[in-house]
Amino acid sequence: MSVEIIAASVTFLVSLVAIYFLRGPADIDYHKKVADELEASLTISFIIGVVGSFIVSVWMRMPAIIVAVLVGLCLGIGLHPLCLLYSSRLISKKKQYSHLQQQVIDLAKKYAGVLSALHLIIELGIELKLACKILEEFVKHGLAERFSHPQLGVFYDFPIVRSHMLEIEREIVEKLKENPEGLTFQQIFLNMKGLSIEALRYSLNKLESDSSIVHDYMQDKYMLRSFYNVRQYHELVKTRKNTAKREPDMEVL
Question: Domains of the chain by range and CATH?
Answer without folding.
Answer: 3-91 (no CATH), 111-230 (1.10.10.10)
